[in-house]
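Input (5-hmdU DNA kinase helical domain-containing protein):
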Amino acid sequence: MAASQHEHFDRLGLRFDGLFGRPLQLIDCQNLFCEVDKYARVAHPDIAGYSGRTRIKQKFRAILAPVPAWFPPKWGITANTDSF
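Output:
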C-alpha cells in the first residue's frame, strides 16, 4: 500500500499531497488500517471479521480545545506545518 499509494489515489480520483509533503509511510498505513478496523467494528457489529475481535478498548471522546500538532524532528516536516 505505501509503495503503490500514488497509483491508488490516482485510480480512485483522490487528491492527496501527503502529510505536509511527506508521503505515507508503512506506519501511517498501519495506523490507518487500525482506525478503519475500529470504525467498522462499531458501525457494523453484526459482521464478524477474520480476527473475531469485537471489543473496542477506548471509545472516542471529543475534546473542545484543539490539540497542538507535534511531529518527530526526523520527519523533517515541522517547518511545513507552521501555516497549519
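The chain has a mean pLDDT of 85.
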